[in-house]
Amino acid sequence: MSGQTVAEQVATLREQGFVVARGFAAADEVQALRELSQRQLDEAQAPLEYEADLQYPGAPPSRQAEGGHTVRRLLDAYGRDPLYRAWATSPRIAGWLRECFGQQPVLSTAHHNCVMTKHPRYGSLTGWHQDIRYWSFSAQNLVSVWLALGREHADNGGLFFLPGSHAAAFEPSQFDAARFFLPDPAENQAWIERAVCPELQPGDVVFFHCRTLHAARGNASGQVKLSVVHTYYPSDTHPTPGTRSASRADVPLT
User: Fold this and answer.
1) CATH classification of the domain holding 163
2) For residue 173, what is the DSSP state?
3) Domain residues for 27?
4) Nearest to 225 by CA among 111, 80, 124, 130
């Protein structure tokens, strides 16, 4: 485990919008999740999201094109296998988030709740964005838990973050129509120059706020990168009725 206490990690999250908890998952747990994820990826077990579906830069133009069946996400991790459920509701995650929220955490099954893949060649890059851009909740206080199942760094699609961006009051004009943070305005460039990409080892976890701007490049390595990510909110926050955020039953952590 990381040398920091949970309270120190939570303080870092509140200050910079993300924090890395080193060695948060045990080696045998990581190995089991990686083997499960690789097997389900190899077998193309539904439900899946394909790179061609999103059309991010670098993705194949269609499912019929070369690389068109490159998987971006194994969807609904919580429903896929008991191993994913055990991880998503583990006492370690519940305890960390209870310290962060000051109350019971709730797992969102409508957002993230997946195994993120990043393939060489056809794994697209992801521009700067805040996850809350397409979520609908009574408060913008959600936290995502990103588990590295292998080494992650800038050149294989590791996450970049903009420290402090979760607390900034950005203007709509700083984003494009899809609510990606525009790279060209000088005021945005000043933020992007602050980008950091923490290198992760298997078992490391990044906790990050739903308003923290983050991005990822393509994967220039020769291996698929696999990560498990779930999102949580405190029990006094509620998904907005009638939206995607309220479309599935969420899971209170005990």
Assistant:
1) 2.60.120.620
2) G
3) 6-16+23-61+68-252
4) 124
Scanning the structure block, which residue is given the tokens 């990560």?
227
Strand partners, 251: 107
Q: Within 13 Å, how many C-alpha atoms sit on residue 132's CB side?
A: 20
Question: Could you tell me the two tokens for 213?
Answer: 């701007």
Contact 234, 104 (CB under 8 A): yes
Contacting residues for 253 by C-beta, under 8 A, at least 6 apart: 89, 93, 94, 97, 98, 104, 105, 106, 107, 232
Number of neighbouring beta carbons within 10 Å of residue 146: 22
* Cα–Cα distance measured from residue 117 to residue 70, given in angstroms and rounded to the nearest whole number: 9
In the sheet that 159-161 helps form, which strands lie side by side, from edge to edge? 126-129, 214-216, 159-161
In whole angstroms, give the CA distance from residue 186 to residue 209: 24
| One-character DSSP codes across 15-66 | HHSEEEETT-S-HHHHHHHHHHHHHHHHTTPSSEEEHHHH--TTS-SSTTST
Residue 153 lies in a domain: yes
Q: How far apart are CA 151 and CA 168, in angstroms?
A: 30
The domain tally of the chain equals: 1
Span 101-156, pLDDT tens digits: 999 999 999 999 999 999 998 888 899 999 999 999 999 999 999 999 999 999 99
pLDDT tens digit string along 11-46?
Answer: 999 999 999 999 999 999 999 999 999 999 999 999
**Strand, coil or helix: what is 248?**
coil
Quote the CA–CA distance of 46 and 44 in Å, as a whole number.
6
